[in-house]
């Protein structure tokens, strides 16, 4: 993690623009809509707090898929005492144990505590519950964080989380410009050759970044079909190369069969895992979803498609497919803002 002050890139954290050229695309409509998760809590005597914290550190911290770096783990409460202690109050601490994403059933939480605490802590209390909700991340402003703290659970302000996301990104601006220049040149060539859909995409494998795969839209070619978009064709090319690679490896050294099988197994993953994708036009829903399934890392496009695009919140129906919370995988998206790479207009109704 690089300190923001030490970042070599020029980043406008307000406008989310890198080097005056790369605009981060994200869904501004749900930035401050909390993604909530139920957590298991228990109200404890403050004297027991160290024992519970130690238990959490050993048994939960590394296992829970939910991070609590932005959350106050302990919440102080003042409650009324029993009838025997009239007009008195006492302090208790409500502590987050873990999320329901880690443990679903109450009996399993009790078993974990009973089997891993030096003292039988759980028998001292009968208020274990998972009724409380906690935001899984901070909002974009301190004011909204304070609102969420009142509505849900006390949070800790650590700054706009997107600032750190932007700060942690890596960019090879020379390579980015070279590839955008190449897909622009290929797009212009396709236009001159009569292709009414001069859409070009480049696929860059992080393990083989010099051998870039370029693909074009061929839906109106002689043997083309309507789904032959440039991104879909590029994924097919990646798949074909992977088939050839595995076939070559299986034949390369039969005397070292175990080593070959291990190597193939280690490379059997999503087709475009962590790939960088560069494309001339904002992708349609089919292509955007195909990239979700392919588990790419980043996409950079030049020309937005206001009617059929599915990445920008202003495009199409505002799906923001790359960061949609209903999907189980996401990827980074940037739009090139400069005019160095002129792309011809195509019909706004065309899906890319």
UniProtKB/TrEMBL annotation:
Alphabetized UniProt keyword annotations:
tRNA processing
Cite the CMP/dCMP-type deaminase domain residue spans from the record. Answer: 174-334
What are the protein's GO molecular function terms? tRNA-specific adenosine-34 deaminase activity
Which top-level group of life is the source organism from? Eukaryota
Q: Which residues cross the membrane?
A: none
Q: Which InterPro entries match?
A: CMP_dCMP_dom, Cytidine_deaminase-like
Q: Does the keyword Acyltransferase apply?
A: no
A GO cellular component annotation in the UniProt record: tRNA-specific adenosine-34 deaminase complex
> What protein does this entry describe?
CMP/dCMP-type deaminase domain-containing protein
Name the Gene Ontology biological process terms: tRNA wobble adenosine to inosine editing
Q: Which organism is it from?
A: Henningerozyma blattae (strain ATCC 34711 / CBS 6284 / DSM 70876 / NBRC 10599 / NRRL Y-10934 / UCD 77-7) (Yeast)
Return the Pfam families for the record: dCMP_cyt_deam_1
Q: Which family does it belong to?
A: Belongs to the cytidine and deoxycytidylate deaminase family. ADAT3 subfamily.
């Amino acid at each position: 993690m690089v300190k923001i002050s030490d970042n070599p890139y020029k980043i406008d954290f307000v406008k989310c623009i890198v080097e005056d050229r790369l605009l981060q695309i994200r869904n501004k409509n749900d930035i401050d809509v909390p993604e909530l998760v139920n957590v298991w809590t228990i109200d404890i005597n403050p004297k027991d707090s160290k024992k519970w914290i130690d238990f959490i550190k050993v048994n939960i911290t590394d296992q829970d898929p939910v991070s609590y770096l932005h959350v106050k783990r302990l919440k102080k409460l003042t409650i009324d005492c029993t009838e025997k202690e009239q007009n008195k109050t006492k302090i208790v601490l409500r502590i987050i144990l873990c999320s329901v994403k880690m443990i679903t059933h109450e009996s399993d939480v009790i078993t974990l505590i009973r089997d891993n605490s030096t003292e039988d802590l759980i028998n001292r209390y009968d208020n274990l519950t998972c009724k409380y909700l906690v935001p899984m991340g901070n909002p974009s402003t301190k004011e909204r964080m304070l609102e969420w703290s009142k509505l849900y659970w006390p949070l800790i302000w650590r700054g706009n989380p997107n600032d750190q996301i932007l700060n942690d990104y890596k960019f090879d601006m020379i390579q980015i410009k070279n590839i955008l220049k190449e897909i622009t040149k290929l797009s212009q060539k396709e236009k001159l050759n009569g292709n009414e859909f001069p859409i070009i995409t480049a696929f860059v494998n992080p393990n083989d970044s010099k051998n870039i795969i370029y693909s074009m839209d061929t839906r109106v070619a002689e043997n083309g079909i309507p789904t032959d978009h440039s991104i879909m064709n590029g994924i097919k090319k990646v798949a074909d190369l992977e088939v050839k690679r595995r076939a070559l490896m299986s034949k390369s050294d039969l005397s070292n069969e175990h080593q070959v099988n291990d190597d193939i197994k280690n490379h059997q993953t999503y087709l475009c895992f962590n790939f960088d994708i560069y494309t001339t036009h904002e992708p349609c829903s089919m292509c955007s979803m195909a990239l979700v399934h392919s588990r790419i890392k980043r996409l950079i496009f030049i020309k937005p498609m206001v009617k059929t695009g599915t990445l920008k919140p202003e495009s199409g129906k505002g799906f923001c497919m790359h960061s949609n919370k209903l999907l189980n995988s996401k990827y980074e998206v940037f739009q090139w803002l400069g005019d160095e790479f002129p792309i011809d207009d195509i019909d706004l109704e065309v899906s890319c």
